[in-house]
Amino acid sequence: MMSENEVNRELLVFALGKEEYGIDILKVQEIRGYDAVTSIANSPVFIKGVINLRGNIVPIVDLRIKFGLGNVVYDQFTVVIIINVSQRTMGIVVDGVSDVMTLASDQLRSAPEFGSALDTAYILGLGTVENRMIILVDIEKLMTSADMALVEAIAA
Questions:
Q1: Would you state the pLDDT for residue 71?
Q2: How far is 137 from 12, CA to CA, in rounded Å?
């Protein structure tokens, strides 16, 4: 269920596969084209490695791999969204950024219940705009989940 504070927020909308996702624009530091990363040995496959961003070592997570979308192709539309989460800077690789939009409360729906079969704790809800459906992601909750603790270890 969404609270009043989560309504009418400005979102950065990005694509992963055929789906569109939205994250709070206030968490976004910058958007960059995908560039080579330095791989870290024995890291999970969704952690692509690290980049040197103006002197700061920033871990890069491929959300497409993390979400199990398979068939990940890097092309000219692939971008890295640099975000600030829990006083930490990290990058997420997505298929492309499509929009910045503000959703009104009547365009938002609660996240569906999938029971314990699927972890949807990081889904804030669904936004509908004309024929588009945007999955609102609590990027902070997603990036601070247990398996993301490795990101912290890599960047340390």
A1: 74
A2: 10
Tell me, what's the pLDDT at 7?
54
Nearest CA among 26, 6, 5, 16 for reference residue 100: 26
Residues of the chain with pLDDT under 70: 1-7, 114-119, 144-156
Give the per-residue SS3 of 6-49.
HCCCEEEEEEECCEEEEEEHHHEEEEEECCCCECCCCCCCCEEE
Which residue, 94, 75, 72, is CA-closest to 142? 94
For the chain, give the number of residues: 156
Name the DSSP letter for residue 133: E
Residue with tokens 């996240």: 111
Beta strands in the chain (DSSP E): 10-16, 19-24, 28-33, 47-53, 56-62, 79-85, 88-94, 96-102, 108-109, 123-129, 132-137
pTM for the full predicted model: 0.85
Q: For residue 13, which of 33, 3, 29, 28 has the smallest C-alpha distance?
A: 28
